[in-house]
Amino acid sequence: MFELSARAQDFIQRCKAFIEKEIEPVEAAFWEEARHLNPNGDWTTWQWPAQLEILKQKAQAAGLWNMFLPDAELGAGLTVQEYAHIAELSGRSLIAPTVFNCNAPDSGNMEVLWRYGSEQQKQQWLQPLLAGKIRSVFCMTETAVASSDATNMQATAIIDGDEIILNGRKWWSSGLGDPNAKIIIFMAHTPDPSKDRHHQHSMVLVPVESKGVRIERMLPVFGDYDAPHGHGEVSFENVRVPIENFIGGAGQGFEIAQGRLGPGRIHHCMRCVGAAEKALELMIDRGMQRHAFGTEILKLGGNLERVAEARVAIDQARLLTLYAAYKMDRLGNMAALTEISAIKVVAPSMLEKVVDMAIQIHGGAGLSHDTALTGFFAQARSLRLADGPDEVHKGMIAKLELRKRGYGSKTKKTLD
Ligand SMILES: Cc1cc2nc3c(=O)[nH]c(=O)nc-3n(C[C@H](O)[C@H](O)[C@H](O)COP(=O)(O)OP(=O)(O)OC[C@H]3O[C@@H](n4cnc5c(N)ncnc54)[C@H](O)[C@@H]3O)c2cc1C
After folding, report:
1. 3-class DSSP assignment, residue 396
2. Which residue among 229, 385, 392, 394 is best mutated to probe the pocket of ligand 1, counting the most ligand atoms within 8 A of its Cβ?
3. Taking residues 185-189, what's their average pLDDT?
4. How many angstroms separate the alpha carbon of residue 61 from the centre of ligand 1?
5. Is 412's pLDDT higher than 80?
6. pLDDT range class, residue 410, cuts 50, 70, 90
7. Given a cut of 60, is residue 411 above it in pLDDT?
8. β-pairing, 201-207 with 156-160?
């Protein structure tokens, strides 16, 4: 079922070798330097360690670049399921996705422009993104309303002649603190009485430098600003952009969002699987190398059982995610809605559990920056909210199950 083409196997092998040879040996020093360069939430001074560009150039020269993109010329031409294995490998590291130009939110934003962008939008924004020269931001979540229900959105994108006027306040806009963040995909309400409620929202391209765009602050996750990437709060006040900046046309926002989030969830979940594998390795090494009460820590109490529990949970999450990817490749995103929601519930929670066990085995060291464990923990906890909270995905799964039994808005036996 999960067969891989020779081409995919080659990419996977080369990615693995690159991560082991080029990234893992320098990663701890890389983040140490990043913390030194960016000591606080003053995002205006944030910068990446110079090492990042060196690693990106090496990855690009090796052809390990934009592998998420199904386009064979611009990306690697891999299926969703094939790329999933690369996402798992890159998830072992907190910089590998960026080194390969396959990091969120840029990969999702690039895919939006690739699928729905006009030729002019592709020239102006997709090309520099694919080249790794600029970064992008996706602004959907709002401060004032419960954004897990996207129909609550209050931001507006109103057509005024040959321009669009944008107003609203967004937050948790990932990547907004990056010194190379140049373009925002802004999602907003474009009221149109002639259309149904799922065609009232639009995606609009907004240069970060536009008049009326004001970055208010960066939001810390558990006290860490994730510098120099960052998660921003940003206001839009009477921002004017040309009407050509609609992506796919006014009212297409929900349709594009569905397309954007499907593959993105596979990527996020497989990165969780990779991070959990790394956490398990760290847990075993630490537990076997440190001693207490006359034996290795890992052999005390129920610790070996925890190793087994981690292995079982990781493999379950991987298989479910690969199955979701397999269905997407063969039947399309809409046929895989249950599986896409299922993995979004399973994989971040699995990572949270595995990392928590690994932190425990590490003792105090587990909470420091000496390993990637705290970064993985923040990633897992954030992903239980980002791209839809667990409960929303469970609600979706339940709705689809009820629909199979004839209950739902499109049947007589409605529960709505
Ligand atoms: C680190 C991080 C990065 C993020 N990056 C981005 C980004 O780049 N761009 C972007 O637009 N957003 C981003 N987000 C925002 C994220 O997508 C939202 O936080 C999420 O969609 C939830 O919206 P909300 O915060 O408004 O929560 P709310 O909608 O207020 O929901 C709060 C809680 O209500 C409960 N709830 C909601 N619906 C249901 C239900 N149907 N059943 C039961 N309980 C329910 C859940 O417990 C939920 O967590 C990011 C978030 C984080 C933490």
Report:
1. helix
2. 385
3. 97
4. 38
5. no
6. low
7. no
8. unpaired
**Per-residue buried b or exposed e for 365-397, using 16+ beta carbons within 10 Å of the residue's own CB:** ebeeeebbbbbbbbbbbbbbebbbbbebbeebb
144 touches ligand 1 (CB under 6 Å)? no
**Using an 8 Å Cβ cutoff, are 276 and 310 in contact?**
yes
The tokens describing 246, both together, are: 């609609």
CATH classification code of 6-103: 1.10.540.10
Contact yes or no for 218/177 (Cβ under 8 A): yes
Residue 175 neighbours by CB under 8 Å, 6+ apart:
105, 106, 135, 136, 137, 181, 229, 230
Residue 38: CB within 6 Å of ligand 1?
A: no
For residue 326, the model assigns a pLDDT of 97
Give the least confident one: 227-231, 343-347, 411-415: 411-415
Hey, where are the domains in the chain? 6-103, 135-250, 254-404
- The pLDDT score that the predictor gives to residue 342 is 98
Please tell me the class of the 135-250 domain: mainly beta
Q: What is the DSSP letter of 134?
A: S
User: Cα of 148 to ligand 1 centre, how many Å?
Assistant: 5
Whose tokens are 């059982």? That residue is: 305
Q: Which residues of 219-245 are buried (b: 16+ CB within 10 A; e: fewer)?
A: beeeeebbbbbbbbbbbbeebebeeeb
Ligand 1 near 382 CB (within 6 A) = yes
User: How does DSSP assign 219-288, residue by residue?
Assistant: --BTTB--TTT-EEEEEEEEEEEEGGGBSSSTT-HHHHHHHHHHHHHHHHHHHHHHHHHHHHHHHHHHHH
Residue 124, both tokens: 């102006």
Question: 109, 147, 176, 383: which to mutate for ligand 1, most atoms within 8 A of CB?
Answer: 147
| Among 152, 172, 178, 344, residue to substitute to test ligand 1 (most atoms within 8 Å of Cβ) | 172
Q: Measure the CA–CA gap between 87 and 337, rounded to whole angstroms.
A: 20
Rounded to the nearest angstrom, the distance between the alpha carbon of 328 and the centre of ligand 1 is 24
Query: Bridge partners of 174?
Result: 231
CATH 3.30.1330.60 fits 254-404, yes or no: no
Residue 190 · residue 166 · CB < 8 Å: no
- Dist CA 163 CA 172 (whole Å): 27
Instruction: At 91, list the tokens.
Output: 């998830």
Mean pLDDT value across residues 327-351:
96
